[in-house]
Amino acid sequence: MREEELSAMPEFYDVLLNRRSVRSYQKRAIPWKTLQRVLNAGRWAPSAHNAQPWRFLVFQSSTFKSDLAKAMGTKLRSDREQDGVSPAVIDEEVQLSISRFSEAPVLVLVNLTMASMDVYPDSQRRKIEHIMAIQSVAAAIQNILLAAQAEGLAACWFCAPLFCQEVVREVLSLSDEWLPQAIITMGFPAETPTPPERKGLEDVVEYWS
Fold first, then answer.
1. Is 66 exposed, middle or buried, given 0-12, 13-18 or 19+ CB atoms closer than 10 A?
2. Strands of 179-187's sheet, edge to edge?
3. In which band, very low, low, confident or very high, does the pLDDT at 4 lie, cut at 50, 70 and 90?
4. Looking at residue 11, what is its pLDDT?
5. What is the mean pLDDT of residues 101-117?
6. How far apart are CA 85 and CA 87, in angstroms?
7. C-beta of residue 106 within 8 angstroms of C-beta of residue 185
8. Sequence-separated (6 or more) residues with CB below 8 Å from residue 183
9. Cα-atom radius of gyration of the chain, to the nearest Å?
10. Is the pTM of this model over 0.90?
């Protein structure tokens, strides 16, 4: 099925196909009720055991966004220095990271908690349970991205907190039960990215009968 055929279908597919990862936003505040609807969409994602293992921290204050961005930037610099990357490249990467997270109108820090997930005595099933929680959190993130698109907003999913979980937890004084997974930047779009190439359906689907 071609994308133009999907686009002729109900409005949902327009939202799905027009969503982009947008990293540049207008300096406009997101209306409170709009933000609540978007976050509520995340709450309605499917989850393993209906455990709803997601926890969202929403930042609109410049101070909180800047503190988090700078702390993550410091860890990024340390990691890239260990990688042997040139100082000029590191400076560019760190400044880009800090500006992205500090200048977005809204940051949503998505966390995982295992508090309501099942507990097993063996390590193999504990590992699987943790993977199930991660998959559930990812579903909530996707709901938020689609809801943002439907509301005329733009957003981008960043996995940067996975590389500096302890830094994020420390700077925000998070509970030990909260494991940072991702940051969603959100706002009114200031750019319209070109659609990326997608593999064809025939490349990713096999039909067994």
1. middle
2. 54-59, 106-112, 179-187, 154-158
3. low
4. 87
5. 97
6. 7
7. yes
8. 101, 107, 108, 109, 110, 158, 160, 161
9. 19
10. yes
